[in-house]
Amino acid sequence: MQNYYILKKTKNIRNKWMSEYTVKMNNYLYLRTTMEHQRVNIDSSLTSNINYIGMVNVIRYFLAKSDSKCTFILFSSTTAYYPLCGYDSYTPPKSALNSLFYILDQEYHSNDKIHFKLFNSGNMKSKSYEQENLTKPVFTKNVECISSCSTPEHSAKYLLKHINDRKVISYDWFSYFLAIKNECELLIDYVLFPLAILVVFCVKLRTKRLMKFIK
Length: 215
Fold this sequence. Notes:
Elements: E1 2-8, E2 21-27, H1 45-65, E3 70-77, H2 91-107, E4 114-121, E5 123-124, H3 127-132, H4 138-144, E6 149-150, H5 152-162, E7 168-170, H6 173-182, H7 187-211
Parallel strand pairs: 3-4, 4-7, 5-6
Antiparallel strand pairs: 1-2, 1-3
């Protein structure tokens, strides 16, 4: 998986398909958790710094230094709406990032200087993803298959294609249903809201059934 910090820009663009946006990527750290809650010797504060504190600092600096209009995109994850075992160091800061987005969206809704957007992505096909699957609990893998898996490049293109459609952009249907279950933004969200409740309910039932086989 990747985190993307995308800042709107009007010059010095190398990739034509990215238009007026430039992308900076960094791998996130996956912290293994066994079913007995035994952890590898990695400071979990590192993932919080990468996935939340780092973003807060970037936003704070950007608001203080930027004078031009811009669109700031926060990159979240499906697990921020649907926590799973195996992501105990990754999901909490992502959930906090979601809360931060909704707060900033309210605080700056009438501000013409900056607009905030949230991108919810599923699993990303990357070396980090392949590595984490070596130690990830089978239960987590079985639940994760509900959400689509994509490459970072395809997800970035999808985001840029739909960036003007809405504030909260979800890569796959399950992430979308989780998002509108939390807050509806467009008329279509209200129309599909009952379906979102049903889908999430069915997934939760499946998750609970799978949990019975955890040893």
